[in-house]
Amino acid sequence: MPAVVPAPHAITATRRATHPWAWWCWAIGAAAAVSLTHNLALIVAISVAVTLVVLTRRSDAPWARAMGLYLGLAGIIVLTRLVFQITIGGIRYGTVLFTLPHVALPRWAAGIEIGGPVTLEGIVFTLSDAGRLAAMIICLGCANALANPRQALRCVPAALYEVSTALVIALSVAPQLVESAQRVARARRLRGGGARGVRAAGALIVPVLQDAVERSMSLAAGMESRGYGSTRDQTRVGHGAGAAMLASLALLGFGAFALLSLSDGAALALVSLGAGLGCAVAALRIAGRRLAVTRYRPSPWQAREFITAFSGLATLGAMLVLARTAPQVATPTNSPVSWPPLDPLMAVVVGLILVPIAVTTVPPEGQA
Amino acid sequence: MITFDHVGFRYAPGLPAVLDDVSFTIPEGDLCLLVGSTGSGKSTLLNAVNGLVPWFTGGRLSGTVWVDGRSTRTHRPRDLAGVVGSVGQNPLTSFVTDRVEDEIAYGMEQLGLAPSTMRKRVEETLDLMGIADLRNRPLADLSGGQQQRVAIAAVLAAQPRVLVLDEPTSALDPTAAQDVLASITTLVHEVGLTVLLAEHRLERVMEFADTVAWLPGDGSVQVGPAAQVLARADVRPPLVDLARRLDWPSVPLTVRDARRRVRALGIAVPDPPQRVLPTTSAVLELGELAVRYGELVAVDQLSAGFRAGEVTALMGRNGAGKSSLLWAIQGAVASSGRVDVDGEDPRTTSAARARELVTLVPQIAADLLYLPSVAAECAQADKESRRPAGTTAALLDELGVHLAMARDPHDLSEGQRLALVLAIQLASHPTVVLLDEPTRGLDYATKAALALTVRELAARGSCVIVSTHDVEFAAASTDRTMVMADGQIIADGPTRTTCTSSPSFSPQLAKVFWPQPIITVADLPVPVARA
């Protein structure tokens, strides 16, 4: 046996958790891409692809098991829309599948029609429209299942450090409050449960609130004696941070308006959004400088994170190209109904979504 | 290392001084034990060391507290974080993160240490406290003893020179407490930390103490070698009681020491008379009682009988099912099997009737209090128990606690609050009285008063069951001891026999006089004969 072996060079050689924000970037890219299409085949393909990534890369943590919840929610959305389309739906033209008896409504409900012909066009349009929303929810559900929410909170810019600390505390205190409420409710029986009405509420709320206040005082004392805020500069944050933050908000707002409302504002929107993002980064940098806390074992941002995050952006990019070069594929005509058209770019979109499977690993047990 | 230089402190002008012109020095590397009854200012003194008093609590401090050459006048608690580490009673309330490793690193992150240093120190601290296998566990899932060790590790990682601990073991069972105390002594002996420790149950820690600081309660502090200060302090762990009874000038700090002295002096004591257990029929009968929380079996098919006029101690480690058993008997927790109090089942009667059959004082007594004054609570209890007005207030007087009726129950001391809840719960004249961990956080005087109350209740014909970790309390006040493990009873018999036969449940005197079944100082004859 040789004592020296070559260093592992593949990016997936070590099994570790992928940075949560990389997963979010990937999922948001996929969600944005799916929002740009009405092509039922593409919607289904993207949903299947993101679900596949989750199934192969999720951990055994509690949040990872929530994926079923999001799939269920997506199913409910599609079903509800279908039921409404069939009963009171707005699209009654095209190939009639079957006809529901018309229900006459009183005069005050004029304008709403129940029953009537149920058409293939109506069904297909509803499926693609609701499917788009459902697919976006699945994408965000994937991010939730793959990214450790607490880790995500830990990896925020230094300027948001206090906010993230507060959120982490809230996340751990909430179950404790529930426990304390249960304990007090149980203790009420011991006094014969004699209190009624306002008094009963008082019997529950007063001890729980007292518990909560004592808990937070003790937490505050603990944080103080462990040095919370000891590195904070006594000087105030410079005006630069505030100005940059205001500028970034204005630019981002205008950029979003240009993108969504101006007919040919794409270039203007992109420039404005980019500048806004730059200002935001600068503002956070300046504001974060006054707090010199360090991070213990920060999640690394390496090749696999770059590739995962980039695959999300690339998915969106490919979709934009598809929408421009082949609009009839991205948004196929609904009447007359035909099989969804296909395009080689669709394979690229789906392929990009699947990229993380190649570069990430399942997190080691207990470290998700 | 720690110097108090003419320190005085009061929380507000007009209030009595908590510390009054206190001056003492604790040298580096000492373990100093802080003793005194509840309200004597132990916590205030501990918090003054890292500046939480007065920076965080408010109040007026005169004189200067020096720690490692720094004055708390000019250094805020956060500035002293790298010098003083402080750990409280309930670690869960002061955790900032939710995972063991993150919690240990938190203090160092705040101090802005380099990531490589942090990494190294976290590993070292995990090993030092023996918790390396817990590193990825969520904090809420740990047992009390583990949580307390994580809390100590979390302050140790910042490498302070002084460790301040405010009753770190009061919520733990004897074995877990031993673990935590062993870790603390390791720190003193191996790391050379200066440790300031406040603790109610002195019997467990006094052997490790270099110095003892006694707060008599008048604002002064007496500091000196453990054996001498304890000989005159008003806190009386069993070995101190023994030394006083035998007129020894200094106190033996360990069981071994006491045993040697007894041998050397040739002290001979007769076996104490066996207390006769009442032979009346059982007033409380349990048949195959079981409590389940989902998959977890807390009480496992338990059958037992309890007689009127008998005090039973329920012992066992945390999670053995003691609390679940008590709650199930009262009927506030769902259970299967049979509960029979004088022919009635408290689980199926109305809550008001159940209260007359069985009453329970829960571990956190404050859960039962919700009205703004002692008078209002008493009046409400009279109404709930359908007793004439004034019953509860009279009971409170009988318990020997005289409270101003206008006081807010939440401002009372631990012992006063327990007395109030006890009076409220006894107002219904219950057949069976259940006490869940009543001795937690009580000082020796309050514990002795509680022992008297318990005996008094039994003498009046109540059936009393007390769950407790405190073997000395069990020895002093109960007739019968049951030991539980995994929801089952593993030992049951007269307290004298049960307690002397098991090393982890035997009181200190039993160890001193072994194999004779002496469990309290009251068992010694007057005067003690010498052979």
Automatic annotation (TrEMBL), chain A:
Matching InterPro entries: ABC/ECF_trnsptr_transmembrane (IPR003339)
Subcellular location per the Swiss-Prot or TrEMBL entry: Membrane
Keyword vocabulary terms for this entry: Membrane, Transmembrane, Transmembrane helix
Superkingdom of origin organism: Bacteria
Membrane topology: Multi-pass membrane protein
Pfam families found in the cross-reference section: CbiQ
GO CC, any one term: plasma membrane
Transmembrane segments: 21-54, 66-84, 240-260, 266-286, 306-325, 345-362
Protein name: Energy-coupling factor transport system permease protein
Taxonomic source organism: Propionibacterium cyclohexanicum
TrEMBL record, chain B:
GO annotation, cellular component aspect: ATP-binding cassette (ABC) transporter complex
Spans traversing the lipid bilayer: none
UniProt keyword annotation of ATP-binding present: yes
Entry keywords, A to Z: ATP-binding, Nucleotide-binding, Transport
Source organism superkingdom: Bacteria
Boundaries of every ABC transporter domain copy: 2-242, 284-511
Keyword Transport attributed: yes
Family annotation (InterPro entries): AAA+_ATPase (IPR003593), ABC_transporter-like_ATP-bd (IPR003439), ABC_transporter-like_CS (IPR017871), ABC_transpr_CbiO/EcfA_su (IPR015856), ECF_ABC_transporter_ATP-bd (IPR050095), P-loop_NTPase (IPR027417)
Record-level Gene Ontology MF annotations: ATP binding; ATP hydrolysis activity; ATPase-coupled transmembrane transporter activity
Pfam families, sorted: ABC_tran
CDD domains in alphabetical order: ABC_cobalt_CbiO_domain1 (cd03225)
Sequence similarity: Belongs to the ABC transporter superfamily.
Protein's name according to its UniProt entry: Energy-coupling factor transport system ATP-binding protein
